[in-house]
Amino acid sequence: MKIQKTYGVYLFAISLFWALWLQLTAGPSKPHPKTKGETWFLTTKETLALPEFKTIDTRSFPSRVKEKMPNSIVLSWEDLSQKETPNRGKLLETKILQKKISSLGIETSDLIIVLGDGKNGWGEEGRIVWSLREVGYTKSFWFDGDVSSLKEVVNQRKNKMVSQGETNQSFLLAEKESQIHTDITKDDITKQLNIGSYQILDTREPREFSGSTPYGEFRGGHIPGAKSFFYQNLFDDHGKIKTKEEVENSLTQIGITKSKPIIAYCTGGVRSAFVVGILRSYGYNAYNYSGSMWEWSSYKDLPLEK
């Protein structure tokens, strides 16, 4: 009886240890708590009330030719990313990135507004903001509007039609508190693929989710367990980002909640970075898999579903 009792205590201890280990390894390998008041994009009204900022224009070449954004810095997401397989889409090394960004006249203390093509683009503005934040430029935001709207903001500020000192800038203070790393690797995903401790969002087109490879993936399909959520679903009929309530309702319909971390991916981590910025702004603990399908599909031993 004594032996059986001792053996039972031993099994209980092992079970307890195993349960604790699963909890400790249940999220991304380096999770970071969401900063209170975290904001990744700004409306026209919020941008009007900002102190001095620098503008990055990440729109397509045709868009820039059609209507220029004066005094802006032209920068594409490719400028900050690796280009060779299997690392295509991943960020360059931090020191190289910081040197590149510094050469453009941008410092980590600067307030940065990024202009993109919005609904007509691929979420490049979100990718730029995500890239900047990953290497220490924490006061980076994208503008939720088009070039004409941002030019109007700049003109009003020049004409002193807005008081910049009387606004609530709590979201800026929040960005100063700490740097949040939201980049996830394939190893982070594979280690916990069978545990189900986080949710996976495929932000590509439905046809890509189902197996089509129009943008250079080596194999078709999606990561097992992923839910299809096309990034364009985050825009309203006017091309603006949907409200928090609208986004929450859309995600709830596909079974995505705030109870678990979310990992988003696409083809090369661009559309997914845009989605991550919105989700984190709305209170979700979201991360971006920058390697995305360019990397995942290049490894034949990594699973895909159709």
TrEMBL record:
Pfam families tied to this protein: Rhodanese
SMART domains: RHOD
InterPro entries tied to this protein: Rhodanese-like_dom, Rhodanese-like_dom_sf, Thiosulfate_sulfurtransferase
CDD domains assigned to the protein according to its UniProt record, in alphabetical order: TST_Repeat_2
Annotated signal sequence range: none
Molecular function (Gene Ontology), one example: transferase activity
Keywords carried by this UniProt record: Repeat, Transferase
Superkingdom classification of source: Bacteria
Domain Rhodanese, first and last residues per copy: 49-159, 194-305
Record protein name field: Thiosulfate sulfurtransferase
Organism: Leptospira ellinghausenii
Lineage: Bacteria, Pseudomonadati, Spirochaetota, Spirochaetia, Leptospirales
